[in-house]
Amino acid sequence: MRFRHAKLLLLAALGLSLLVSLFANRINPYALFVLYNIGINIILAVSLNLINGYTGQFSLGHAGFMAVGAYTAAVITNQFGVLNGFESGALFFGALLAGGLCAAVVGLLVGLPTLRLKGDYLAIVTLGFGEIIRVIFQNMNAVGAARGLSVMHGYANFFWVFGFAAVTIYVVTALVHSTYGRGFIAVRDDEIAAEAMGINTTKYKVAAFVIGAFFAGVAGGLYAHSIQFLTPSGFGFMLSITFVVMVILGGMGNTPGVILAAVLLTLMPEGLRKLAGYPHLGWIGDTRMIIYSLMLIVLMLARPQGLFSRRKKFKGATS
Amino acid sequence: MTEFLQQLINGLAFGSILALIALGYTMVYGILRFINFAHGDVFMLGAFAGFYLAPKIATFLPTPSIGSGLVVMFAAMLICAVIGVVIERFAYRPLRRSPKLTVLITAIGVSLFLEYTGQFVFGAAPKRFPQIIPVYPIAHLGGLSVTSNQLIVLAVTGLLLVGLRFIVLKTKIGMAMRALSFNPEAAALMGVNTDIVISFTFALGSALAAAAGILFAVNYPAIDPLMGILPGLKAFVAAVLGGLIIGTTETFVSGYISSTYRDAIAFAILILILLIKPSGLLGKKEIEKV
């Protein structure tokens, strides 16, 4: 992707999302909720793409970082009750950043020891960390344990969700196109060669992990304020797999493709649900998830490089 | 002391079930170098095969009895062996030359497919597994309670392990399996039919998972289509660290510390061990050559 006028595009996206958020009360609440989900999933998929796609480290624990951000943001805003106007914006922004930072710290703690591992082992260990995070929340009485935590006031709006989506896309794209960012791709393409060229591979891997975790945390905070109720079981490893599927479907290390995949995969369940409402199509409701899993298998057999990737061969987290 | 021994026995019974599942992971990993994510769901299918077969077998064999229990188990093992071969043939074989990540995602897809199809066909609600093995009076050995089911689990696991060892070490196909795990290309050049050996490995691993499914269902008699997820994940950990270690540690933690943290234990141990020894507890360090 050519990368000119990036800052201009970012500003335009921010302005546009602010503009739409002013008219958001004209959109019906269900459509708005789906839109928020699209924005949140874009953040998660694009940030995971930095780890899995650009740096080639196969992580299966993204839902865990999202959970950290979601709970942090929810607890912080619940402390302050319901605010209005500028105060509410500042509070929400602060809570989102705090959620992102907490997730980034967890990402650092997870990343430092585990990134010595490769491929399958890394996948399993990150999956394990995701599960551990979930079990910890399940046992934490301060956040409602298994009963769940309700968020007093949902501050998420169009501006925050899509503003952060734009920022995520900008940061990740700018990063991998920068001189520093070439290192991520070098680590993915050939770790030994990269190391021989003097690239500190561990540092790059941890950096990708921490940045990815930060945005996952922010997305978690947005999610908490969009859905307004958090349960630990909602952050299981199935959710992490959903994000991985978005990255794979879009093509590893192909940001526009990943964004498109995130949009499609968020809309697909809603679309199938709608279809199931028509006569003679009720069976779709029951077999929705079977169709989804079959699609995943067929996609991997037919187009392992992703739906929207033109490259013949892709190099992901091999070996 | 008594409680310690009691937890040890419970842990050994659970650990040997994990070990049976773990063997399927290791055999496939040894030959194809990828994690068969769907393995835990084959374990689930084994339990469901037993669930549907048991009433049929009860029509011509006295149930519950050891004999009928074994017949149910062998039938389930046979069914799952076929399922394992079919999965390999249609989902994994076309990807044999693809990057491992592709295969891993496919395996996750297969796993989801089996779970959701299971929910659709069997229903999502947990089902009570019929009693296929008679429960003998519980043995009390100085305050210890050992159920006959636990002894059966240990005995059956032991026998299956001896059988597996015989197949791998003493038969021709076992030799081919070992050859393939050393060097697939060289084995193929020596006239080993790789496709058949890989199919056989999947059949063997899936049969062991089915046996584990039956043993699990006999001990913890509620089965549901998602029952394979956690044992499957834990068995992977067990494949790295040893099933008995994971099984006993888990029961000790839930017995002495807190049962709610039980599901996190296997992963916590895995992470700790991998920090110290990145190639597994008994694994050898491999040097990567360019």
Mind explaining what this structure looks like?
The complex is a heterodimer of chains A (319) and B (290). With 319 residues, chain A is an all-alpha fold. Chain A is built from twelve helices and two strands. Chain A has helices at residues 6-22, 29-54, 62-80, 85-114, 119-139, 158-177, 182-189, 191-196, 201-227, 237-250, 255-276, 283-302, and strands spanning 149-150, 229-230. In chain A, strands 1-2 form a two-stranded antiparallel ribbon. The radius of gyration of chain A is 19 Å and the shape is globular. In chain B, the strands form two sheets. Chain B has a two-stranded antiparallel ribbon. In chain B, helix 2 runs parallel beside helix 4 (100-122). Chain B starts with a helix and ends in a 14-residue tail after the last helix. With 290 residues, chain B is mostly helical. Chain A binds chain B through residues 58, 113-114, 116-117, 119-121, 123-125, 127-129, 131-132, 135-136, 138-139, 192, 241, 244-245, 248, 252, 286-287, 289-290, 292-294, 296-297, 300-301, 304, 314-319, and chain B through 29, 34-35, 91, 94-95, 98-102, 104-106, 108-110, 112-113, 115-117, 119-120, 233, 236-237, 258, 260-261, 263-264, 266-268, 270-271, 274-275, 278, 288, 290.
**Kindly, what is the distance between the CA atoms of the first and last residues of chain B, rounded to a whole number of angstroms?**
54 Å
Q: Total number of β-strand segments of chain A?
A: 2
Assembly type of the shown chains? heterodimer
Give the helix/strand class of chain A.
mainly alpha
Adjacency order of strands in the biggest sheet of chain B: 1-4
Number of domains of chain A: 1
Question: Based on CA inertia axes, which overall geometry of chain A fits?
Answer: globular
Biggest contact? A-B, 44 and 42 residues
List keywords for this structure.
A: mainly alpha; two-stranded antiparallel sheet; 12 helices; 2 strands; disordered C terminus; B: 290 residues; mainly alpha; globular
